Amino acid sequence: VRMATGWENLLQDEQQLEELARQAVDRALAEGVLLRTSQEPSSSDENNSSQVSTSIPLSPHQVVSYAPFTLFPSLVPCALLEQAYAVQMDFNLLVDAVSQNSAFLEQTLSSTIKRDDFTARLFDIHQQVLKEGIAQTVFLGLNRSDYMFQCNADGSPSLKQIEINTISASFGGLASRTPAVHRHVLSVLNKTKEAAKILSNNPSKGLALGLAKAWELYGSANALVLLIAQEKERNIFDQRAIENELLARNIHVIRRRFEDVSAKASLDQDRRLFMDGQEIAVVYFRDGYMPNQYSLQDWEARLQLERSRAVKCPDVATQLAGTKKVQQELSRGGMLEAMLPGQPEAVARLRATFAGLYSLDMGKEGDQAITKALAAPSRFVLKPQREGGGNNLYGEEMVQALERLKDNEERASYILMEKIEPEPFRNCLLRPGSPARVVQCISELGIFGVYVRQGKTLVMNKHVGHLLRTKAIEHADGGVAAGVAVLDNPYPVVLTDVETLGAFSQLSHLMTRKAVSF
Question: Residues that bind ATP, according to the entry (predicted)?
Answer without folding.
Answer: 144, 163, 324, 383-392, 394, 417-420, 444, 471, 477
